[in-house]
Design brief:
- With about 675 residues, this protein is mainly alpha-helical.
- It is about 55% helix and about 5% strand.
- It folds into 3 domains: about 190 residues; about 110 residues, Fumarate Reductase Iron-sulfur Protein, Chain B, domain 2; about 270 residues, no CATH class.
- The strands form 2 sheets. Strands 2-1-3-4 form a 4-stranded parallel beta sheet.
- The chain is elongated and about 100 Å long.
Length: about 675
């Protein structure tokens, strides 16, 4: 009689809990779909591969090293789900047990549940110690929500192990060395009264049942909803260029950028629900690490909180099946000024992409921050005062240095550099860029590259006065309208000249020409000078070992490394040139920004510590005599950092300068 009543009561509770869980998840989905439409379809095979590699195998979590305990909890969740499903089925139909599958398979399943429960308990202890003792800055160490979840999981493990131990003590299950947790508990209670053991088993069974159902329905209300949403977010990640920015519809829309939360796309809103709040984005953000008000984690979660705040209002009066976006004229509170989404935070971003590189669930922070900047620039005209001059100079002079376009080619005087109009059959168009054309220090890089190309017999030409800024800074600073004007003009010029191959020294220009101009009809083979120089050295067209013994430390540019995965070519070029290459602790994928990206090159740095000073100090600690770079922005920022540190004896040079300095005399 008791078993029948138990089955009926549990069935009612289970149906009610599942219904409530489904209802709340549906509300979350409806709120998410209030965002603008966005397509994330296509290439199912690649998406499934990424889901397995980054989702189930937790590649980024494992790479972080210090988060192995999270990996254990994740896999424990998956393995123990088998037992929990069997537990719920057994609650409805008591005869459904692992033993129905045969003694061997049942033994394997019991062993997997026992061993994984022990591992999860150990991982929970590590996680609790981290929060209570270590208290890393990038986490919310004393978050009540985190301890509720950790506590519920711990109770589930305890109840499951103890109930199984009682079954072993009562002779219902065989003792096995593969179930050490349950066997240990069985040994403690061996010899107890059968009635008492049965009563305790039922108490633990109901404790397990109730905690499991509470856990299920607590998830949608907590930050741990990512248990449900993280895997879909990984599946729906960008397959191409992950930091690519969306176009703005200037003709069909009256809203440019993101002013309110529903201006984000549904996928951008899903990011908020998928955030694990692990803090890796903060821990690798140069702004956050130098005490600026930008926390990528809080930007994502504050946007989610804003959506939750307005979801009821926006969904009121809609049919329950309605998944359409919110109306464009929906009157809700704007994002800027909401919690930690402040103008200072938005303008602190260098768009380095470190947050996106480290996020285990592929949240896309950079595009969101650029969208917020677009709204401030294009809709509100609220941006730092120094950008007024920058935008004006880009519009009127085609460069940020306020110099006449007619002087753009003066850096090449005396070097016999042909114009493309004079040598249209040249193999490469050398896109010099604004810094390489106008900045005194970076002109030396342009001149050095020319000497290398000429020594190797490479056919190239420049545009000279016809060249204009590629528009990278305008776009990253949110002035999409100015960027599009510049991009269209440049593409028209390049296509009119029949350009096929472009060589650049600036990773920002390289990135823009290669990844962003195709949207405007500009399809070119774009090369960074370090990969070309590497090839020339490897083929013998430039002499190897010329700089033998030179001790250098190489700084990875964000837009060359993280944005374009070009890590080995600059280092190989230096090694082939004879340099001994040292590494900073933060290099490659975890390289630290110089502070100039995202248009920050043209802005004052008044908050926190200077990013370039921190990076320079890291380079100087290696003891190298030269800091090698492959970006004009990095050259400027690190040269300033060396000067400010009083370490002028350490040279800061572009790779082209290092190679050119050791070329045989002409």
């Amino acid at each position: 009689m008791y078993l029948v009543a138990k089955s009926l009561i549990f069935t009612v509770l289970l149906i009610g809990a599942l219904a409530l869980f489904a209802y709340v998840c549906w509300l979350r989905l409806r709120a998410m779909m209030l965002g603008r439409p966005e397509s994330r379809r296509g290439d199912v095979g690649a998406r499934l591969g990424h889901l397995i590699y980054y989702g189930f195998l937790q590649r980024r979590v494992a790479a972080a090293g210090g988060s192995i305990h999270h990996l254990v909890i994740f896999w424990g969740f998956l393995v123990l789900m088998i037992g929990n499903l069997a537990f719920m089925a057994g609650g409805v139909y008591p005869a459904l047990r692992f033993e129905l599958l045969g003694a061997t398979l049942a033994g394997i399943l019991h062993a997997s549940q026992d061993l994984m429960a022990l591992l999860v308990l150990a991982a929970l202890a590590v996680a609790s110690c981290r929060r209570l003792v270590l208290r890393p800055r990038h986490m919310d160490p004393l978050s009540p929500d985190a301890f509720v979840i950790l506590g519920l999981i711990a109770v589930l493990m305890f109840a499951m192990l103890t109930a199984t131990g009682i079954e072993i003590a009562r002779g219902e299950l065989p003792a096995s060395s593969w179930t050490p947790g349950a066997v240990l508990i069985a040994g403690w209670i061996q010899g107890g009264q059968q009635g008492t053991l049965f009563a305790w088993h039922e108490v633990l069974w109901w404790l397990h049942a109730l905690v499991l159902l509470v856990f299920l329905n607590y998830l949608p209300f907590s930050k741990h909803f990512h248990i449900i949403t993280a895997l879909p977010n990984v599946y729906l990640r960008r397959l191409g260029f992950v930091t690519d920015l969306s176009r703005v519809d200037f003709e069909g829309s009256e809203q440019f950028g993101v002013t309110k939360v529903t201006d984000f796309t549904w996928k951008q809103l899903l990011d908020g629900y998928a955030c694990t709040q692990c803090g890796r984005c903060d821990n690798n953000c140069p702004a956050w690490k130098t005490d600026k008000p930008l926390s990528p984690k809080h930007i994502i979660n504050d946007a989610k909180d804003n959506l939750k705040l307005h979801a009821h209002q926006l969904l009121a009066g809609r049919r329950w099946r309605d998944l359409s976006p919110a109306p464009a004229d929906a009157r809700i509170e704007g994002l800027v000024g909401f919690q930690q989404i402040t103008p200072d935070a938005i303008w602190s971003c260098t768009t380095c992409g470190a947050c996106m590189e480290q996020c285990p669930v592929f949240i896309e922070h950079v595009p969101k921050l650029v969208d917020l900047r677009r709204s401030l620039v294009l809709m509100e005209s609220q941006f730092p005062a120094e950008l007024n001059k920058l935008f004006k100079d880009l519009e009127t002079n085609g460069n940020p240095y306020a110099l006449a376009a007619t002087t753009r080619g003066r850096w090449a005087e005396g070097l016999k550099v042909p114009l493309l109009s004079e040598q249209p059959e040249a193999e490469y168009l050398y896109w010099v860029g604004c810094a390489g054309s106008f900045d005194d220090r970076n002109r030396r890089t342009s001149q050095a590259l020319v000497r290398c190309l000429q020594a190797a017999g490479v056919s190239f030409a420049i545009l000279g006065p016809e060249e204009r800024c590629c528009g990278d800074s305008a776009r990253r600073l949110g002035n999409e309208y100015l960027f599009e004007e510049m991009a269209r003009a440049n593409v028209e010029l390049l296509n009119g000249c029949g350009v096929k191959k472009i060589l650049t020294t600036c990773p920002h220009g390289y990135n823009t020409l290669k990844h962003e101009y195709p949207a405007f009809g500009g399809h070119y083979q774009v090369f960074h000078h370090t990969e070309v120089l590497c090839g020339l050295l490897a083929s013998g067209r430039l002499p190897e070992q010329a700089a033998k013994g030179l001790q250098v430390v190489f700084h990875d540019s964000c837009y060359l490394g993280r944005y374009n995965q070009m890590y080995w070519q600059p280092r190989e070029a230096l090694r082939r040139a004879g340099a001994q290459v040292a590494e900073m602790p933060r290099h490659g994928r975890i390289s630290f920004c110089c502070g100039a990206g995202g248009g920050r090159m043209w802005m004052e740095e008044n908050l926190g510590r200077r990013i370039n000073a921190e990076r320079t100090a890291e380079a100087l600690k290696t003891g190298a005599e030269t800091i090698a770079v492959a970006c004009p922005f990095c050259l400027t920022m690190l040269a300033d950092g060396v000067k400010d540190a009083g370490a002028e004896k350490v040279a800061v040079q572009d790779i082209a300068e290092i190679i050119a300095a050791h070329l045989p005399a002409a």
